[in-house]
Write a structure and sequence with these properties.
Length: about 280
């Protein structure tokens, strides 16, 4: 299927024809096979995909993407952006034994080989780097948000403007912003994975990549395991069903975001329900 980069679009790990109209790095619970072939720009280094049963972690649905930190670049590329003057994206990342880095997790280029946006993990933190119209990089740190073991959301917004307001928000902890002159710069390709061939023997998992021209997607609802956009008993049922190996939850069952669906997630959802 041809996937276009559109306003409010999401890239996914395909799992059969049933998902012909879906977007995101997540799949329906009925999916059997996970793949990255809808990233039409290619899959460098064969990033792996799979289910959480001893293979890949995932934040929502049964599929996620995993790359190794083994000194070789592993990433996927989306080449559907077309001279974009605005670019907003959000993804989830789980870093297992990443060392100190740096690990280039995301980059967007201008079609001429210049990475004008980069998201980098280094020394337990995420930093957004944005080039200005002269090619000088500007760093936007995540405001002291520590990125340790567990799932972390990364959201940024970029625009082409003489006084562009560029923002980064990690784990929904608050936007960090900078004003950068991005005059004349446009986005042609986006890349996600271990872009710089970082080593160290660890692993990085990705899920729920959402790219847009307008409106920030924000974080997914924590603990919304049955994907009905509301917290209730059905989320407990969905988590129990997955724990009993009956079916993968369609939403976000990993409520405590530790990379596993287990009793702790039931407790997490109960805590949320009791606070409503």
């Amino acid at each position: 299927m041809i996937m276009k980069w559109m306003t409010n679009s999401r890239k996914l790990l395909f799992a059969g024809a049933a998902l012909a109209a879906s977007f995101g790095l997540v799949l329906s619970a009925q999916a059997q096979t996970c793949t990255t072939t809808n990233w039409l720009g290619g899959q460098t280094g064969s990033p792996t995909v799979g289910k959480q049963d001893g293979d890949n972690r995932r934040y929502g649905g049964p599929c996620g993407m995993r790359v190794a930190l083994n000194g070789t670049a592993h990433y996927v590329t989306d080449d559907t952006p077309n001279a974009e003057e605005t670019y907003i994206a959000r993804f989830y990342v789980f870093l297992e034994n990443p060392g100190t880095g740096p690990i280039n997790l995301f980059a967007a280029d201008d079609g001429a080989g210049n990475d004008v946006i980069e998201v980098v993990f280094e020394n337990g933190a995420i930093t957004l780097y944005v080039e200005d119209q002269s090619g000088t990089p500007h760093a936007i740190p995540a405001g002291g948000v520590a990125v340790g073991n567990g799932w972390h959301s990364v959201e940024f917004a970029w625009e082409q403007l003489g006084s562009a307001q560029i923002s980064l928000n990690v784990d929904g902890a608050g936007e960090q912003t900078a004003t950068v002159d991005t005059t004349g710069i446009t986005i042609a390709n986006a890349h996600l994975g271990n872009l710089n061939g970082a080593a160290g023997g660890g692993l990085v998992d990705f899920d729920d990549f959402d790219s847009r021209r307008s409106s920030k997607p924000g974080r997914l609802t924590v603990g919304d395991a049955n994907a009905d956009a509301a917290m209730g008993v059905g989320d407990l049922v969905a988590i129990l069903s997955e724990m009993n190996e009956q079916s993968f939850a369609a939403g976000q069952p990993d409520c405590n975001e530790d990379g596993n669906v287990a009793v702790g997630d039931l407790v997490c959802v109960l805590d949320i329900l009791n606070s409503l």
